[in-house]
Amino acid sequence: MIELEGVPELIDPVMVAAFEGWNDAGDAASTAVAHLDREWKGEVFAALDAEDYYDFQVNRPTVWLDGGVRKITWPTTRLSVVRVGGDKPRDLVLVRGIEPSMRWRSFCNELLGFAHELGVELVVVLGALLGDTPHTRPVPVSGVTSDPDLAQRMDLEETKYEGPTGIVGILQEACTHAGVPAVSLWAAVPHYVSQPPNPKATLALLNRLEDLIDVRIPLGELPEDARAWQVGVDQLAAEDSEVAEYVQTLEEARDTAELPEASGEAIAREFERYLRRRDGGPGAAGPAGGHATADGGDTGSGAWNPKENPGGRTRPPKPPRPEAAGESESESESESDGEGSSEE
């Protein structure tokens, strides 16, 4: 039994989780939860025992100095709580950590124990995958669930993904088997510019989360950071004719695929978000290893990073031309689940 001390009774609590690693392309998901924690000044109330879940040769502890005293920070997963004010106040339980190296079932059961004790009504897990999506278009964010009733009630995709999965998919399934409503939100990150940070993908996840749980999220400098990121990638891509041509191919495929989706419903959703922010007052305004890909595979780090090379001296790798701009997991699972290597 998990006993929590010093945590007040929560109002309509929602657990929002993200994990660094395979399911966090461009660090988009973990950065989104970190943004929530920072903007709402979250208070950490629990941390999982690092000895139980992490291989320290894979996720090494770090040493730092505090007033001349050496201290060690161990890789782990921490939980904090924030209260969102407004006409309908509610609390968020934020879970942020690193994908565990072992004992995934025990890891998920421990998180579900916290969820049960805190009276969590919904678990939302954020993820990001690499896909054949152009950086010049809005970031696709798919909302998926394993619960058919929840999918219908919240206008989500019911996941049909089969293949490799990460802790995001495992946690969602654990929630489903425990009877806890759970949703995964997946952002598709361009595979040719996969290095963090990716503020555009982080912003897209927060916008979708805002719609899902009906709260207004202060975005701070994220919109400006997203614009600057895109300008930087535009400039670097323009320096290589093959990359520019490849991006154009992705744009054409994306525009063709989404033409039927340019519906009045999508336009209305964006307009409603604009109205909420206008009326809301002030504030309206990775680790080593690969990441999940849209086809359930893996890719190493070391891709082109526009922020590290603002002068354009390093160009993006010439990507292979897609054999078909069709369904990948970003569309099959991202839209289906999103765990682009995702599974869910």
Would you report the number of β strands?
Answer: 12
Name the shape in a single word: globular
Q: Report the order of strands and helices.
A: EHEHEEEEHEEHEHEHHHHEEH
N-to-C CA distance? 28 Å
Radius of gyration: 20 Å
Helix share, percent? 25-40%
> What kind of sheet is the major sheet?
8 strands, mixed
Strand order of the largest sheet: 2-5-6-1-7-10-8-9
Sheet-strand content, in percent, reads: 15-25%
Q: What is the helix tally?
A: 10
Low-confidence blocks of residues: 281-288, 301-342
Structural class, by secondary structure, is alpha/beta
Residue-averaged pLDDT, rounded? 80
What brief labels describe this structure?
single chain; 344 residues; alpha/beta; 8-stranded mixed sheet; 10 helices; disordered C terminus
Walk me through what this model shows:
There is one protein chain. With 344 residues, the chain is of the alpha/beta class. Helix content is 34%, strand content 20%. It has 10 helices and 12 strands. The protein has helices spanning 28-39, 50-53, 104-118, 148-153, 167-177, 199-213, 222-238, 241-258, 264-279, 329-332; strands spanning 14-20, 43-47, 62-66, 69-73, 78-84, 90-98, 122-131, 141-145, 157-158, 182-190, 291-292, 298-299. An 8-stranded mixed β-sheet has the order 2-5-6-1-7-10-8-9, with helices on both faces. The chain has a two-stranded antiparallel sheet with strand order 3-4. A two-stranded antiparallel ribbon has the order 11-12. Strand 8 (141-145), helix 4 (148-153) and strand 9 (157-158) form a beta-alpha-beta unit. Helix 1 (28-39) crosses helix 6, helix 3 (104-118) crosses helix 5 and helix 6 packs antiparallel against helix 7. It starts with 13 loop residues before the first strand and ends in a 12-residue tail after the last helix. Residues 281-288 and 301-342 have low confidence and may be disordered.
